[in-house]
Backbone:
């Protein structure tokens, strides 16, 4: 039984770490602020959730697990808000997203 | 009144789970802090269908697993794009309109878009949103409108009415 939970939690922790690393690579590789936010989106969602779930599996059924679950819940509500605040302040400062494709046609997004 | 009671119950449950104390004196202290919070929230006039949307609770229980699955799939898509050597991104800005009736519905939709990697809501003005999408696939997934429909369903009561519409 302990072996099963160990395998499961380590799988989740390693998978989560992989997504955190991918998000970090994305932050470095992607070209501008708006596309970099997608990299941080990976860190905010699957990366953090998999790490916290892995810790919950390791901890078993206890108050600490409840606190970890609450962290997941609050993270799901706060991270889009912070992402939106970041995008909004960038737009207000006059920074526009880099658009490379032709389909949309117009370059500007500021209203 | 119903909202205040439900908020009080939720706050007290949260207090119990975070503290783990079961001594009478501490339970009373916890209860009085909850009561004080309710009084302050009531004076601030934030206990309503927006600040504490209990009418969504059971429909949210159906919406969240679906959203979680979408987020997981989108994560893998974006991770693949980031890690591939050629990095086939195609950033674009989409203008879309949420078909929800209330501001709460629009905010839930906008936040769900942002939570899904590959799409980020960068502006929201009375239901009109500007969404930055990283790839054409992410943009097309959004334009298929399934998330819009799901949030619309989340917002509607079973008889088709929506709480909080002026």
Residues:
């Amino acid at each position: 039984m302990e072996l099963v939970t160990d395998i499961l939690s380590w799988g989740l922790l390693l998978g989560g770490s992989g997504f955190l690393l991918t998000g970090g690579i994305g932050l470095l590789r992607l070209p501008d602020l708006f596309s970099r936010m997608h990299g941080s989106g990976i860190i905010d969602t699957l990366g953090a959730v998999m790490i916290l779930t892995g810790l919950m599996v390791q901890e078993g059924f206890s108050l600490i697990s409840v606190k970890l679950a609450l962290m997941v819940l609050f993270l799901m509500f706060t991270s889009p808000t912070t992402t939106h605040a970041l995008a909004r302040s960038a737009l207000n400062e006059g920074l526009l997203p880099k658009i490379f494709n032709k389909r949309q046609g117009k370059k500007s997004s500021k209203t | 009144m119903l909202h205040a009671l439900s908020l009080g119950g939720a706050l007290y449950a949260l207090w119990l789970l975070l503290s783990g104390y079961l001594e009478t004196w501490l339970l009373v202290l916890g209860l009085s802090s909850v009561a004080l919070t309710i009084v302050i929230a009531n004076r601030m006039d934030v206990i309503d269908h927006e600040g504490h949307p209990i009418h969504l609770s059971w429909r949210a229980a159906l919406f969240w697993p679906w959203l979680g699955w979408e987020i997981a799939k989108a994560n893998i898509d974006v991770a693949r794009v980031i890690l591939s050597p050629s990095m086939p991104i195609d950033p674009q800005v989409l203008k879309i309109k949420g078909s929800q009736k209330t501001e709460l519905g629009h905010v839930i939709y906008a936040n769900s878009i942002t939570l899904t990697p590959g799409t980020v809501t960068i502006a929201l003005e009375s239901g009109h949103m500007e969404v930055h999408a990283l790839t054409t696939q992410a943009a097309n997934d959004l334009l298929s409108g399934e998330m819009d429909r799901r949030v619309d369903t989340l917002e509607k009561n079973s008889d088709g009415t929506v709480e909080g519409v002026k």
